[in-house]
Write a structure and sequence with these properties.
The chain is mostly beta strands and 278 residues long. Helix content is 5%, strand content 48%. Strand 15 and strand 16 form a beta hairpin. The radius of gyration is 23 Å and the shape is elongated.
Length: 278
Amino acid sequence: MTIQSKMYVLKTDSDEEIDVDSLACVTFLQSVRDAPQLSTTFYEFSGADGAVEGDSVFKSKSVTCNFLIQAANVNDYKLAEQAFYDFFYERKSYYVRFSRMPGIRYKVIPAAADIQLSDNGKWSKITLELNNFSGYGESATSSLNPQFIDDNYQFGEGLLADNYRYIHKKNRFSIYNPGSVTVDPRRNFLTITVMGDTRDNLVIDNQTTLERFECYREMNLDSKDILTINQTTPKLNGVAIGIDTNGGLISLAPGWNDLMFNNISRTYVTFDFYSLYT
């Protein structure tokens, strides 16, 4: 017997996913995701052949979902249809996840909907188009959550039979990004937390991406100093200190990233991020 496909929705103001089948009279049928689309900038120069390749970015794509709404009578159907639209059509984006690919979720905002109403008015098939405006999916949980194959992880996420660590007490270590897209703090969630005793300037080198971050403020573990680099904003003990850094950022390329922390002892470091997928 074929296992029924499930759809889960996580609203921005909630920590709990909602099974769409729990909505009154609603049954989720299937979803279809558009293929990834790249948009590449090309530059042409007078007197030169062809064009020069520039940056490429992922364009937004659609996730199309089909539902069945079936009620005992016309009045109940109208109520269920209205509840369906109230649930999906919000001004803020939210995440959707599917049991066929349980380890990956998509940030979406609703677009068009097509309804095929039955002659008796008691049931319909609704096709809802969701706009995955970021252009990619992301892991259902962040790197600081336990990693194993269950409802939130799956084969095909880039996870291998290995013990990945995102908390370290050494100055040299590697961070594994299982996704197929670089985690760029300019656009994606990435929080690096650092504690320890610094001398001179703290220097963080990603030797894989050749990126460097320098902090000119001193830190002391006994004083419980905490440096957080939350995407593009570095803070020491909760106070922004961008002016006391070199303005550098650390991103995570797909696969292994070799990290080096210089001028710090009694080191304690965490990397918290969501891996990204085309």
